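Sequence and structure are no longer studied apart. As an example, we show below a sequence and the tokens encoding its fold:
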Amino acid sequence: MNPLWLQEMWWGTLGTVRPFPGFDADKDVRDIQIAVEKKDVATLVRILTNRNNAQRQQIAESFHKASQKDLSPVLKKALSGPLQELMLALLMTPVQFDAHRLRQAMEGMGTDEEGLLEVLCTRTGPHLKEVMLAYKQMFGRYLEKDLESETSKDFTKLVLGLVMKEERNTRGLIDYHLIGEDVKALAAAIGSKKINSAPWIQILTLRDPDHLNRVFQRLEMLKGETMEKMVQSNFSGDFRLGLRILVCCIQNTPLYLAQRLQGSLKKSSIVRGIMVGRSEDDLLCVRREFKKLNNTSLYSTIQKEFKGDLQEALLALCRSEDL
């Protein structure tokens, strides 16, 4: 299970990247300038993967003061390919990175529905409000309008519900009446020939995870099947995919992310998204779930699947072996 108090505790305690002791932004800037001149990629990787995001923002600011240049374009010239994309991702703030990922999922031919869902289902309402602002600042576009144009029908309602979600915080309080009402509403919505998706969208995007996990447990006992089976047998298409991922994230976000890594190790963009996006959040938990799923550690898997400086950068974010 994935209670709200544990989600809050994860930040800064169950991430793999911590503040670098003895941090000196000016020294890092000097070392980066020399590394860029010498094309010393290993030094760039060592510095940027061993500082937390707040420290990397200070490095970027100090670099601009020292050189009158932005660090990102300088790194873009010095690096290439997936390593370049990883280093540039590290220079974004968390909300900028999520905004960037959402835009990537909607650019070009077709929409990456699971790319959208990974961000929208694993982030809190307040965080997503900041992502919406960052999206407008970065791209001059409204996230809600892009989501509307790139999706359809019930799936549109679900993703908009997620991006606008205002979770009812019931931490420390167990509202048995509301739990019972939600169970009845969800059961009734799939209890007739005409499935009603509206209660599923409303309840799953308005309640906090602790409350929803209690609802899910009672609904599973009532229906005699798992939430996954209920979603699979009653819904279809992108909406079914969205509900399946949302339910999984409500129950156990690190497990969903571990499963996504397991099936996407050949796709550097997905690996980058999780390794960067969760490195100061819950990557230790993702590592634990990955080890349970695969009987081998994420660290060892990265060693096997990647090479060179990209491997070193990903290993630095992963941090250590799980025995």
User: Anything to note?
Assistant: The longest helix spans residues 237-262. The CA atoms of residues 114 and 188 lie 28 Å apart. The radius of gyration is 21 Å.
